[in-house]
Dyp-type peroxidase
Amino acid sequence: MSDTPAPLSQAVHNPTTRHAIFIVATLNAGAGAAETVRGWCEDVAALVRTVGTRSPQENLSCVCAFGSRAWDTLFGSPRPAALHPFREFGSGERTAAATPGDLLLHIRADSMDLCFELATLLRNRLGDAVTVVDEVQGFRYFDRRAIIGFVDGTENPEGREAVDFTVIGDEDAEFAGGSYVLVQKYLHDMTAWNSLTVESQEGIIGRHKLSNVELDDDIKPSSSHSALTTLEENGQEVKILRDNMPFGRPGAGEFGTYFIGYARSPAPIEQMLENMFVGRPPGNYDRLLDYSRAITGGLFFVPSADLLESLASRAPSAGEAAVAPASAGSAA
Ligand code: HEM
């Protein structure tokens, strides 16, 4: 038995908080930009401590993750075995589309001042090495309801199960302690959604709206969101860990859900997207998508906390750097 302790994960499993900031950035071209981002990796944990210590009861945390092309440009090989650009699903109005993104920051705390301060410090230290392409401030809405009025996050795995479903182990030993994370920003047509009866909405989600109790199997539609996102492999349920947040600007008529899902492989999250956008079987798609549009999509690798810190000294070799694509504006 080896004495080396298992690598420590980043704050993937931290409990859900009242606030979050999601930042997606692209890496600017040039060796200097890559060097800045690598050096920054070493500073993240210290900056979280710097801000979080001032109010420990508010559970400040940050998860940093890298897109596929950015990984090659920044760190070269070895690369996480299952990391690839975001795969698109569906077509036309109902498309899970890929949008540019090389770096994802998932900042959480029970007060927005901590999230805001940390986001500012992390972003300032990145300087002109990156271009921020999306930034969302999410908030908890009543008793953990999504903006569409249903409690969100109920079926998340907890404790040991949450770790087993999200942390890479022996299947990719060099990246053990890491995870994959998929994000999508959704906008909802709340006028159309609110014109449905509560019973119709419950059929679309698969749960009762007020009580959050799951619909009985004999009345739950196979097209319901909860049915299409329930996966089984060899008789066992395969789960992912979500911490979606509502966001919006009522004055501008914007109402959204920032979806974030962690898993130890992109495969289960992609299967859920296929079930939702294409349908299971094809055509039996998620009716929530008749009222919701995904306007961003990115897949990222979350290095373990230990690996994140050591990435500062991991540049691609000269040969790799020569072939690595300039990733400004690249899809994740
Ligand atoms: C369940 C909302 C997108 C995966 C749920 C539930 C709600 C909800 C209200 C029921 C309670 C719960 O268990 O959390 C939303 C909204 C979305 C969205 C508003 C954005 C429009 C997604 C996406 C995925 C996903 C994109 C995966 C790719 C799941 C899973 C469950 C779930 C795995 C639990 C299913 C179960 O075991 O019953 N979602 N969701 N959701 N959702 Fe979503």
Residues 112-126 form the longest helix (15 residues).
